[in-house]
Write a structure and sequence with these properties.
This protein is of the alpha/beta class. The chain has a domain at 4-134 and 158-186 and 231-242: Rossmann fold (3-Layer(aba) Sandwich), CATH 3.40.50.150. The protein has helices at residues 4-7, 17-31, 67-73, 111-121, 134-137, 143-152, 161-170, 190-199, 210-221; strands spanning 38-42, 59-64, 81-83, 96-101, 122-132, 173-182, 234-242. The protein has a seven-stranded mixed β-sheet with strand order 3-2-1-4-5-7-6, sandwiched between helices. The two termini are 34 Å apart. The model has no long low-confidence stretch (mean pLDDT 91).
Length: 246
């Protein structure tokens, strides 16, 4: 996994910036019930998405485990941010109306623990909103994907939709209609993809050796239009509703 303390300074500029953040926030808000009054954005990072989760009557908080991320988020999230492990939130049972987890579950081997913790802090009728199948969204059928696809095989991610749904069911969360949004500015280029491979940006699915990285980088360098972005990914947001308390 990336060192998010080190990544904080350049995180926004390398991940689509405001257009992607706005699309993500708008999609999350489409799934937050009109009666919701509180939302916690898990792994809020720099707060670029979190600060856009605004509507009248909704109080929004952020939580992240990285100090450097929170230093930036503090200036963006007026209702407050807290340093916290998403598996052990400093909240009582049944205190929130909504929990969002955008681009989180694919990063960790303990996705079920996060789902369970979200279920614990949600009131009955509250919702967990989470991106699922993130790695699949990045395969847009381009020439870059043709190079990378053999290395994605068998690494569908810990945010695989069927797994997350099973975790949700085990913890009193039932599926509701979801939505999707475009990852603006995230269309891959061959040169950029090679650089990101070398920086370890694909840890959720790539587990090759340094030699494999260099072989892939050479294959990517042979592709045409080295700096032309391919199609943007389209992300999927799943939604789960808290039923009665256990």
């Amino acid at each position: 996994m990336l060192d998010y303390e080190a990544e904080a300074a350049r995180y926004d500029e390398t991940r689509g910036g405001v257009p992607r953040a706005r699309a993500a926030a708008d999609a999350v808000l489409r799934l937050v019930p009109p009666v919701a009054r509180t939302l916690l954005d898990l792994a809020c990072g720099t707060g670029l998405v979190t600060e856009r989760l605004t509507r009248p009557g909704l109080t929004v908080y952020g939580a992240d485990a990285a100090h450097a991320m929170l230093r930036t988020a503090t200036g963006r999230v007026p209702d407050g941010v807290v340093r916290a492990d998403a598996r052990r939130l400093p909240l009582r049972d049944g205190t929130l109306d909504a929990v969002s987890a955008v681009w989180l579950l694919h990063l960790v081997p303990f996705a079920e623990d996060i789902v369970a913790e979200a279920a614990r802090v949600l009131r009955p009728g509250g919702v967990l909103i989470a991106t699922v199948d993130k790695d699949l969204a990045h395969d847009v059928g381009s020439d870059i994907d043709a190079v990378l696809r053999p290395h994605r095989a068998g690494h569908a991610g810990s945010d695989r939709a069927d797994l997350v749904t099973a975790y949700a069911d085990a913890h009193g969360l039932v599926p509701a209609p979801g939505t999707g949004f475009t990852g603006h500015g995230q269309g891959a280029t061959p040169r950029g993809t090679a650089e990101r491979l070398r920086r370890g940006h694909f840890a959720s699915w790539f587990h090759g050796t340094p030699a494999t990285v260099e072989n892939l980088a050479r294959s990517l360098a042979a592709l045409p239009d080295q700096d032309r972005p391919r199609a943007d990914p389209v992300y999927r947001l799943a939604c789960y509703v808290r039923t009665t308390r256990d």
